[in-house]
Design goal:
heterodimer; A: 328 residues; mainly alpha; B: 141 residues; alpha/beta; 32% helix
Chain lengths: 328, 141
């Protein structure tokens, strides 16, 4: 059983991630269209896009560094699906060590770094500009993200004295909402809002899509990619949405509903997974679809300002409120 | 079923378009993008770089200078690729037919797969062209 789980598990999780990531992308496009009074594409459109990209010619520019250019899409997809192994998808995650959450913080950087290296390797001036913008964006959003996660774990350490506080499995089985007072609850809400603002930047969706701004720098990071390589970046982008939403779910809404039914074990897995999908979908809808319909694209200096001043201050206020909750 | 038909059947489900629009050319595609006709229903979207594109839309009158850029864009697109010419200026030079500098026969410069006449072409005409392409692919051997 253990061998079966460790051999087949990653494939199943990767399949789940890619399938539901693409499905969410389709639903996101439909809802985005409906909010603009359009009909929108069919739900399966992202699958059709990928299917088409797989048969397109895979062009490598003449001046590009071939092996880096071709390696980065694979690495991006692999790294983003490997984060998914640490995220509890309604049931306990496949992999779990002492410092999951810190590992996830670093792994979340990897897809962005892959994009950047791929863009630099493609030797296109547009891609280079996009890569530099992506770098600036990474500098701006990492700090609030880290503050949010660390302050939640710190508050948890004041309640439980366990040694594996940084594992997502532990955090998701011990939700914080019941343990904190009024100040703590306000602080948690602020931290939740901060994390929801970080999601669209992490996914580089519309208000923060400056690295791949197609109207100014011609697709930016992905300017030179086509065919299979582009399909892999497309899929890793889709999986990333699940990963980010799954992280928010695991930190803030880890509740399950299977205990109210008393059904057999395998049905419990299925119903918990379905409930997880509902929760992630709500988060994706709120922080990606609505935001990208309502806002226009920011300039690069505005993004840096937004994340260095208001969002960072908000996350620090959240931390302060959690601290007040402990000492009062 | 031939290899080519298999490929084209996949492409007509998800057409990514790159625009090469001179002068007033863009007003010919704007209604198709907008919410009344909404080309995203058929999976068509506009992309920002020729590398991602399957279809190159050419509109507006082409000068001898601008056609070089259009050719370079065409060369950068990944196979299989299709070129559609929109509007009468593109096809015959339109009201600039007697200018020394206007391209009057586009296929001398770029392999054009289909012409859509009109000044500007109605969105229905654009969709009819797409429907014809779909039908052509379905009827292929």
């Amino acid at each position: 059983m253990y061998i079966l789980r460790s051999v087949l598990g990653p494939f199943v999780v990767a399949f789940i991630g890619i399938f539901f990531g693409l499905l969410y992308k389709g639903v996101d496009r439909i809802l985005h269209a409906r909010m603009q009074k359009r009909v929108g594409p069919p739900v399966t459109q992202p699958f059709l896009d990928v299917r088409k990209l797989l048969i397109k010619e895979n062009l490598v520019p003449e001046n590009a560094v071939d092996w880096l250019f071709n390696l980065m899409p694979v690495l991006s997809l692999v790294s983003v699906t490997s984060i998914l192994l640490y995220i509890p998808l309604g049931f306990e995650p496949l992999l779990s060590t002492k410092g999951d959450l810190i590992l996830i913080l670093y792994l979340l950087m990897l897809p962005a770094i892959c994009l950047m290296v791929g863009a630099f390797a493609s030797s296109s001036p547009y891609a280079t500009v996009g890569a530099q913008r992506e770098m600036v964006m990474m500098i701006s959003y990492e700090f609030p993200l880290a503050v949010t996660i660390i302050s939640m774990v710190w508050r948890l350490s004041k309640v439980h004295a366990a040694s594996n506080l940084f594992t997502l499995e532990y955090i998701s089985t011990h939700p914080l909402w019941g343990e904190v007072g009024v100040f703590g609850a306000i602080g948690l809400v602020i931290l939740l809002v901060v994390l929801l603002t970080v999601i669209p930047v992490e996914l580089s969706r519309v208000p923060f899509d400056i690295p791949e701004a197609e109207s100014e720098i011609a697709g930016g990071l992905l300017a030179e990619y086509s065919g299979k390589n582009l399909a892999m970046f497309y899929m890793s982008d889709a999986v990333k949405a699940i990963v980010m939403a799954g992280l928010v779910v695991a930190l803030f809404f880890p509740y399950t509903i299977s205990q109210y039914f008393g059904w057999p074990l395998y049905l419990e897995y299925i119903i918990d997974f379905a409930f997880f999908l509902v929760k992630t979908f709500i988060i994706v809808f709120v922080s990606v679809t609505v935001v990208r319909t309502a806002f226009a694209r920011y300039k690069i200096d505005q993004v840096t300002y937004v994340f260095w001043v208001p969002v960072t201050v908000a996350s620090l206020i959240g931390l302060l409120l959690l601290y007040l909750d402990v000492i009062l | 079923m031939s290899e080519k038909k298999k490929k084209l059947q996949r492409i007509i489900k998800a057409i990514w378009i790159f625009n090469w629009f001179n002068s007033c050319g863009f007003c010919e595609l704007v209604p198709v993008v907008g919410s009344r006709w909404d080309m995203e229903r058929f999976g068509m979207i506009i992309v920002g770089t020729p590398r991602h594109a399957d279809v190159l839309f050419i509109a507006g009158y082409q000068t001898l200078k601008s056609i070089k850029r259009a050719q370079r864009i065409y060369e950068q697109m990944a196979q299989p690729k299709v070129v559609l010419a929109l509007g009468s200026c593109t096809i015959t030079g339109g009201m600039y037919w007697d200018s020394y500098n206007t391209v009057k026969r586009l296929e001398d410069y770029i392999p054009v797969n289909m012409y859509i006449p009109g000044c500007p072409p109605r969105p229905e005409a654009v969709f009819e062209a797409c429907a014809k392409i779909f039908q052509h692919v379905e009827e292929m051997d």
